[in-house]
Amino acid sequence: MLIYNTLTRQKERFVPLHEGKVGMYVCGPTVYGDPHLGHARPSITFDVLFRYLKKLGYKVRYVRNITDVGHLEHDADDGEDKIAKKARLEQLEPMEVAQYYTNRYHKAMDALNVLPPSIEPHATGHIIEQEELVKEIFANGYAYESNGSVYFDVEKYDHDHHYGVLSGRNLAEVKNARRELDGVGEKRNQADFALWKKAQPEHIMRWPSPWSDGFPGWHCECTAMGRKYLGAQFDIHGGGMDLVFPHHECEIAQAVASQGKPMVRYWMHNNMITINGKKMGKSLGNFITLEEFFKGTHPLLEQPYSPMTVRFFILQAHYRGTVDFSNEALKAAEKAYERMMDGWHRLCELKPAEASSLAVEDFGKRCAEAMDDDLNTPVVIATLFDACKLINQANDGSACLTAEQISELKSVFQTYLFDVLGLRDDFSGGENVDLEPYRKAVDLLLEIRKNAKSAKDWTTSDLIRNRLNEAGFDVKDTKDGFEWKVR
């Protein structure tokens, strides 16, 4: 299996540190607002990686954190804590805010069929580990205290190691890019970042430490929790491309400064989602939550889009490519997803022939080769559509497939469409609905319609078809009888 390593800027053959086992850490959400489309992409990307690694036979420990402290409003080292600010404005306890939006995030992930991680640690539950990390960095000479806050000495670290190995930046560029910040006078230079911040009197999220009552810097949590649950070195660290700098760059520096060696072997990053060519953001008015997608309540949306449509839309592009949202793109994804499911339904209904009129290629091999090539989900989807063409030929009577061929195709769809890509055969907007009673009822009505047509009772035949159509069912007559689907 080849994966693109952001650290080396090339595809590398994946070889885990421990045979048969994989340690994977992915940056989860900061829980101060409703989950949005930007949350969906990394969640789905690394869900597919999680699923595929397990399919390959690895025992995977997947850690995805919850940031519930330390992510500041203006900058990694400046401003009010985002959750604390939300709590102050809504007159709630900060953990009330964090729990509410954590629940909302979990609900959205369930709708998108994202598997839960092996461990989901919270930053507030690991203050001691973060303080110990700061102590180690301090003891090794790469941190300094200033007015009760502790900062990472980037210049000293860069002299001994190299700050910028992940992002490709050098220290001079970092210094020039940093804007003037409130409290920058506490630092030795602008590139230094906070490991521990002294809490101001009005700050409501604080913990005791050797330096002050305060809270950990944002970058500390992933280093501390990754090491706690995955060890001093682990295989994969993932997240969005916007985290490459400064967050993941600082993580690398913290790990090396504290333990003398890097913590992560393979860094993986998904690209961004834009909306009509622009970056998504609240200030631009194009910020769309996942609930708004599912209900169609945002002004930019022409209709609701089911969670599986959103998942299919994201997987149609390679995870390292940009995805641009538009209503037209979502509608196209919706139709493509429906065509794929139509193919699956027809495959399940196919009656085998004694002999095949077609040479069926190895679709499973093609899917495996695509996944082994840095999770190339667009090629997997294209391969499954090629299989759908074959299924449609058999359904129309222009080709014949044996029981063995049908069984092999079902195995390919089950493995790659459902198990690996994580798509789900439903029309209910993400709810787990048992469709069997619907199928039996519609099949019964269509059998009555078939008998009415045989008796030339066109009035009854047309009435059943029209009423089903009004109820949202598309009915199509075939050479063997009929087929139907839900719009």
Task: Give an account of the 3D structure.
It is a single chain. The chain has 487 residues and is α/β, with parallel strands linked by helices. It folds into three domains: 15-270, HUPs (Rossmann fold), CATH 3.40.50.620; 275-420, Isoleucyl-tRNA Synthetase, Domain 1, CATH 1.10.730; 436-486, no CATH class. It is built from 16 helices and 15 strands. The protein has helices at residues 37-55, 82-90, 94-111, 127-139, 154-160, 171-177, 220-230, 244-259, 290-295, 307-315, 327-349, 363-372, 377-396, 403-420, 436-454, 458-470; strands at residues 2-5, 10-13, 21-26, 59-64, 143-146, 149-152, 193-198, 214-216, 234-240, 264-270, 273-275, 278-279, 323-325, 473-478, 481-486. Helix 2 (82-90) crosses helix 3. The protein is elongated. Mean pLDDT is 91; it is low at 179-183 and 427-433.
